[in-house]
Write a structure and sequence with these properties.
It is built from eight helices and 23 strands. It is of the alpha+beta class and 461 residues long. It has three domains: 178 residues, Glycoside hydrolase family 3 C-terminal domain (Rossmann fold, 3-Layer(aba) Sandwich); 71 residues, no CATH class; 113 residues, Sandwich (Immunoglobulin-like), CATH 2.60.40. The chain has a six-stranded mixed β-sheet with strand order 1-12-11-10-2-9, sandwiched between helices. Strands 3-5-6-4 form a four-stranded mixed β-sheet, covered by helices on one side. A four-stranded antiparallel β-sheet has the order 17-16-22-23, with no helix packed on it. Helix 1 packs across helix 7. The longest helix has 14 residues. It starts with 21 loop residues before the first helix and ends with a strand.
Length: 461
Amino acid sequence: MFRMGLFDRKPSGSISANVTSTAHNAAARKLATASMVLLKNDKGVLPLRADPTTKLAVIGMDAQTPQTGGGGSGSVAPAHVVAPLQSIQDRFTQTATCATNPSFPNSDISGHDLLEPPAKVGDLAACCALCSNTSQCVAYSWNHDGSCYLKSATGPRIARGGQDVGVVGGSVVFDDGKDMDQAAATAAAADLAVLFVSTKSGEGKDREDLSLYQGWNGYNKSYSYDALIEKVAASCAKNNTPVVVVMVSPGAVLTPWRDSVQGIVAAFMPGQEYGDAVADLLFGDVSPSGKLPLTFPDVENQWGFTEAQWPGINLSTSPVSVYSEKLLVGYRYYDAKHLEPAFPFGHGLGYTTFEYSGLTATTSGVEFTLKNTGNRDGTETPQLYLGFPAAAGEPPLQLKRFKKVELKAGASVQVSFSLDARALSVWDATTHGWEQVKGTFQASVGSSSRDIRVNQTFQNA
C-alpha cells in the first residue's frame, strides 16, 4: 500500500462507485461460468435448446432477484446484476436475428438463401434491416467484403461461437415459487423446469445448517427451498418433465432431493454477471469445466463432529477447538472412514466424455494419455492422487497435482505431472522438517477423488 502511494492521498470514492467496464464485465461473466460445477446431468438433459415448440418453466425467486454474493464484509455493490430469468427469456426471443459470423457466408441453414446473389450493403446493421420485415429470416454479414446473406428458417436463428444453436422460439413461463403447489403445477405443465435456489452467509452469523434457504436471518422461517424442489420434482415426475436445479451457495449444501431431479448446477457465488454466465452454461455456449473444491456431504454432520471439534469447548472463557481428526481433513476423512458423500471432492461433469489410458509412474512424475471421446469440444481437469506406504500413517489418497486440459472432440494429448522430493515426504515433528518416505507408492489419476481412472505403483528406494 505504501509502494502504491495509497497513504499519500486522501481516500476517495465509495463502495457504491461504478468502476466496471465492458472488459471487466466480460471477464466477470467468463470467470463465473468457469467456476460453476455441473454436478448431475442425467440423460443429457443439458445443454438446453430453444426451439419453437419448447415451453420452459423457470421457478424460484432467485431467477428474478438472485443472490450473487455474501453479506457483511463479503458484500459488494455492483453497478448491475444480470438476472437469470432475463437471460433465459432473451434466448427465446421471437425477433429476427443478425450475426456477424464468417462461418456461415454460403452455407444454407434451412431452406435456401433469400438473396441471389447476396446484397452488398457494407455492414451488419444494413444487412439486418433487409431481414427486419419477417420472422422467417436470419441475416449473416460477411466481414471481408460486406456481403449480406439472408437465410430462410422456421424461426430466427442465433449463431454463437461459430455454431448454429438452433431455431429460437418457444416460450418461458416464470413462477416465483412462493406458492409451492402453484409452482409445482406450473413446472409440470412445461417441457422442462429450471429451479433457481440459494442460501447465503454473512459476517457475524454462521449458517445454522447446510440446507438451502430456510428463512435465513429470521425471514419466513416456514419457507424452504428444499421443500420447493421436492414438491416440484414430484409433480414433474408424473408428467415426465425433467427438472434442473441451479444453486447459489457460499460452500457445501445438502441435496436430499438429488435423486429426484435430472440436472444440478452448483454456481457458488457467481457475482453480477450471473444470469448471462449461467445461461452460457445451460444452453451450451460454454461447456462446463468446474470441479468441486470441497465435498458435498450426504447428510448433516456426516463426519460426526463432536462438540469439542466444533464449535469448541469453554467458548465464553477459554475457547478451544480440538482437531482430533489430525491429517484426515476434507476428502481424506471420507476416504479413510469409507463414507459415501453426495458429491465428492474434485467432481464436475462436462458436455463430453474423456478416456484415460497408458499411465506410467516414477519418482520423478507420471504421464498418461487423455482423449476426448465425445462429439463436442470440452475441458477436463485430471487430478493426481498419491497413496503412501502404509507405514507412513498417511491418509489413503492425497491430491498432489492437477491440470486443466482443453481438447477438441476426438483429440488426444499426453498429460504429465512432475513429482519432487517434497511430494514424497511427510513432516517429521521431531526434526521439524520434511522427510522422504521410502517404499511402494501408488499413483492414481482420475476425474475426481472418487472417479479414479488409472493406477500405477512405483518404488521410492
